[in-house]
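Help needed: design a sequence for this.
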């Protein structure tokens, strides 16, 4: 039970190049995923997710979204949110001008 008193890790971000290097090290087979994670002070969960994402991007993964698809989805969600805001503004303006013309 020694891990019970640990503070949660601060969220860190890594470059795509760094992630690719870590994935390559794991796929080589010299070391286990756990060993690579320990060597670079990473969580094993993060490294496994990077490997899964690299497999998806290569077309050999579990059918999840590729990185390009994730980026496109995020862009479409932002655009959708903006368009909904525009529609709401137009609804309010229509109601305002309908009152004014009476």
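Sure. Designed sequence:
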């Amino acid at each position: 039970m020694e891990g019970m008193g640990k503070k949660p890790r601060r969220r860190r971000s890594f470059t795509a190049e760094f992630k690719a290097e870590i994935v390559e090290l794991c796929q080589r087979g010299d070391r286990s995923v756990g060993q690579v994670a320990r060597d670079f002070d990473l969580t094993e969960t993060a490294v496994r997710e990077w490997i899964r994402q690299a497999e998806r991007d290569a077309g050999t993964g579990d059918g999840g979204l590729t990185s390009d698809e994730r980026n496109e989805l995020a862009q479409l969600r932002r655009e959708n949110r903006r368009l909904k805001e525009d529609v709401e503004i137009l609804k309010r303006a229509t109601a305002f001008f309908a009152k004014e013309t009476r």
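The two ends are 73 Å apart (CA to CA).
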